[in-house]
Amino acid sequence: MLEEEKMQIKKDRIYTKPVDLTGYRILVDRLWPRGISKVNAHLDLWFKEIAPSNELRKWYGHEPEKFAEFKQRYLNEIAENPHKNEFLKIVKEQTEKQDVILLFGAKDLEHNQAAVLAEYLQNIE
Length: 125
Hints:
The chain is of the alpha/beta class. It has one domain (22-124). It has five helices and four strands, in the order ββαβαααβα. A four-stranded parallel sheet has the order 1-4-2-3.
């Protein structure tokens, strides 16, 4: 019997069109993205509890030169997050049957919390 291929963790900007509906869609922003209706978001889950704290989000301000420190601070927050195990359980269950798409609102596709979270999830597998 062939070993089943594990599904992927993807990341996508919530404003991207056409919308990728090929996986379980989780919004990982603390704030709802402007101009997106709940219907058009096509979410399976909004898990704002895994997003960076308001303090960290405001400090970072999406300034790429702060990304390395943001990443470390966010990883520290994840380690201490009381909702982490619930989030990991959901991701694990979903990746057994489909891709998981981490959605974010930031314009910068590489320097955002979904990028940190995706890397974190791939490193704990």
